[in-house]
Write the structure tokens for this entry.
Amino acid sequence: MDIGGNSLTYLGHSTFLIETEGREKIIIDPWLEENPQTPEDLKRIAELDTILVTHGHHDHFGDVIPLARKTGARVVANFEISSYLLANGIENVHPMQKGGPDQVGEIKVTVTDAIHASSIAEEDGTIVYAGEPGGYLVEFRNGFELYHAGDTGLFGDMRLIGDLYAPDLAILPIGGRVLMGPFEAAHAASFLKVNHVIPMHYGTTPFPVELAGTPEQLRERLEDISPETRVYALKPGESWEQPAQ
Ligand code: NI
Ligand code: MN
């Protein structure tokens, strides 16, 4: 396992910034301006090549349109969100659905399942259907592969993801209530057979619902369920350091 020249930085909640060895910049689920976890000096991003969107909820989609407008980055999203973006003047869309991979710039992207909902709430309260939620497998040029689960409950086909793709690193939600809590995330790590987990989507305040799960609880659950898995609780602004072999 080697993340090589690629870097992965947590920007809080479910937002991650990737810089590849070829200096491509990729953001997953950008929620910056109103994200209470994002450090002030990281809220403004000047250059981006690719935006990956898991679903339409505001805490994942909130900064997609402003960032796409500002940077011209291509936006990878399902058909419904792509159509919404086109209707809002964002032309550089790259629709994908769950299925086979696609080469997107320097990375290979596969959309996975996620057990959740997906819609876009307009300012006037209208709810726009935003297709099915998903997660992303991202494979770098050097073969390193990460899985960003998006918002999801535990599902049995995570075993399939583990069997077929064997990701090196999984980024899993642990807040509970509207997605996996620490117990479910520990089983997800076991299903995925991953040795490295970065928890996300927890401890965000203010937030409409309490996201009470903690990395410590995840570590405790893993002791019984998948003891070889290590947990990296990144603080917003921190980058993932490749562990010593
Ligand atoms: Ni959501
Ligand atoms: Mn969410």
Observations:
- The mean pLDDT is 96.
- The chain is about 20% helix and 25% strand.
- The pocket of manganese (II) ion (ligand 2) is lined by residues 57, 59-60, 151, 201 (CB under 6 Å).
- The CA atoms of residues 4 and 142 lie 7 Å apart.
